[in-house]
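Hi there, hope your week has been kind to you so far. Thanks so much in advance, here it is.
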Amino acid sequence: MRYLLATFVVFFSVSSYALENFPNMTCKGDGEWKGVTGPMQTYTTDTKIADNLIQNTYNLNGKTFQYNFRVTFKENGFFDVSVEENSVQNIVGAGYCHDIQCMYKASFQNIYIEESLLFVHKKIYRLTKRVTDSEVLILQDVCKK
């Protein structure tokens, strides 16, 4: 019983932490996306993370979407999401991390984004919801270093 309790305590003390920064990395990935109607389709993505500036480029059937976010961590893994407009950082959303997984929501330029990130072995597993006035897209990809 002591061994089981000790294992439980060690596991949760090691694995229950919050990220304080996103890992610096550049990666490329492939994924699948779908809209409210129609078939599942594929896309490519390029991501660069440096000093909590996230630059995402998505290429979907000839359409390119690019988002640049700055993440500012606060306590316990919580963070603000901001975009630069006219040389000013404006907070457009918020998120949180626990262990190796993060989630954020942001709204800017008539676009609403929810994204879940899982950082594992130099890869980012993402699930994204992108909403505009004219469409709702669900994107899922793996971005590899």
Summary: Strands lie at 25-35, 41-50, 53-60, 63-73, 78-85, 88-98, 101-108, 111-120, 123-131, 136-144. The chain has one domain: 17-144. The domain at 17-144 is CATH 2.40.128.20 (Lipocalin).
